Amino acid sequence: MSKHMPPAHPFDDDKLKEECGVFGVVGVADAANFVALGLHALQHRGQEAGGIVSHHPLEGFNSARRFGYVRDNFTSQSLMETLPGPLAIGHVRYSTAGSKGAAIRDVQPFFGEFAMGGAAIAHNGNITNAIALRRELIERGSIFQSSSDSECIIHLMARSLQRNIPERMEDALRRVEGAFSIVAMTRTKLIGVRDPLGVRPLVLGKIGDGWALSSETCALDIIGAELVREIEPGEMVVITADGGVDSVFPFRRQSPKFCIFEHVYFSRPDSIIGGRSVYETRRQIGVELARETPVEADLVCPVPDSGTPAAIGFAHESGIPYGMGIIRNQYMGRTFIEPTEQIRNMGVRLKLNVNRALIRGKRVVLVDDSVVRGTTSRKIKQMIIDAGAAEVHFRIASPPTAWPCFYGVDTPQREKLLAATMSEEEMREHLAVDSLKFISLDGLYRAAGEASGRNKSCPQYCDACFSGEYPVAPSDMIEKGFQLKAAE
């Protein structure tokens, strides 16, 4: 791993990794500064690396790509002065395709020079037919500079015969399968596109006389932009500083399949999705969880921070007191001493500590957002027992994660997912807890605002990580031998 990379948290390998975050601004002075702020607000979506491309009418395109956190790279005045102009886009990355611990050449935005001028592109999601596309493009003479699936889009644009860059992008994206929310730029235009299923998020904001595109609304808040609306599934917007927003729908209309795990974990709780507060949805997940899985206990504790809103909802609905039984160390961003084997063995204790005075003698309900491999859950359970808890009950604010995601989330191989190889009772025994219960898919859908639950014939969200029902066939993985769920 590069010395410039932020150190891994001791328990982060047991969480699904966020995909990426994209942000763009047009029509404001020093647009790159606004992009840096937006990327800072989207840091939870990718901590591996970040990049910004800007354009100035006299100085042309400029770019900066760095490993590590936005705050450590894009706050230097000397660096930001190299990114002038009223138009800029940016990207924060957690690698989901291509090599892990990747080279700087894999860091987005990607830039290409075309006959009609340059263009840069930042992509959140995953292209499920990237291997086939890459093979075809290389056979036809394309030379790839990175291991990222996103670079396929640039090469497809270069081969397109359309007249301008937005039309070339349309042409390219019609060849692409999978999930994509894209923020791109030319010399004068800011472009945003969502795939026809709208798997990944993208919103439009207004800032003064300018415009912004962002993965989440929380990044609009940080720059003082007003949320205008979400970019619709299958929509492309082309924005200019003086001409405003032009909208087209270049793809065949389909039933949307937004990623339901954005509600559970990925999005920041202060963001708005579909006109609904993410925090409120997570609190309501806790309410539904308490209704579905009652338990006799003395204390409801969140596993911080992602389990907090659901724990608040669970406590309120169940009548069991809420307490901060686990305290998170907020300053684990950088390891202050060399992580020796002895330090590594401390594991989760470096990040979380038990509030012993509150826990001792209590029957404790621990509320967490998910169980992936189960390694962290076992460690947290043992910490609670060591602190003197009488009983430990896990309540999970998502259904069992039994299938990998191929749409931009870094998921372990299926055989490493606890729920793929064990029943709920076997998982309970493996974690050695007094009880373990997950919210049902219907309960999750109700919490997300679908009063009648999940429409089994045409689910309202992409929930493949829970159901194994993939709305877009993962062509590359099937080619590698991945077995889809058998039809029921």
Task: Work out the number of β strands.
Answer: 23
Strand content: 15-25%
What are the low-pLDDT stretches, counting only 5+ consecutive residues below 50? 1-12, 96-101, 333-338
CATH architecture of the largest domain: 4-Layer Sandwich
Largest sheet: 7 strands, antiparallel
Distance between the termini: 44 Å
Q: Helix/strand/pairing class, anyone?
A: alpha+beta
How do the strands of the widest beta sheet line up side by side? 3-2-4-1-10-9-11
Principal-axis shape equals globular
The amount of helix comes to 25-40%
* Oligomer type: single chain
CATH fold annotation of the largest domain: Glutamine Phosphoribosylpyrophosphate, subunit 1, domain 1
Q: What is the name of the CATH class of the largest domain? A: Alpha Beta
Structure annotation, total helices: 18
Name given to the CATH homologous superfamily of the largest domain: Aminohydrolase, N-terminal nucleophile (Ntn) domain
Overall pLDDT, averaged? 90
Overall tally of domains:
2
Provide an overview of this structure.
- The protein is of the alpha+beta class and 488 residues long.
- It has two domains: 12-257, Aminohydrolase, N-terminal nucleophile (Ntn) domain (Glutamine Phosphoribosylpyrophosphate, subunit 1, domain 1), CATH 3.60.20; 276-470, Rossmann fold.
- 28% of the residues lie in helices and 24% in strands.
- The protein contains 18 helices and 23 strands.
- Strands 3-2-4-1-10-9-11 form a seven-stranded antiparallel beta sheet.
- A hairpin with a 3-residue loop joins strand 7 (178-185) and strand 8.
- Helix 9 (278-292) crosses helix 16 (441-447).
- The longest helix has 15 residues, at 278-292.
- The radius of gyration is 23 Å and the shape is globular.
- It starts with 19 loop residues before the first strand and ends in a 9-residue tail after the last helix.
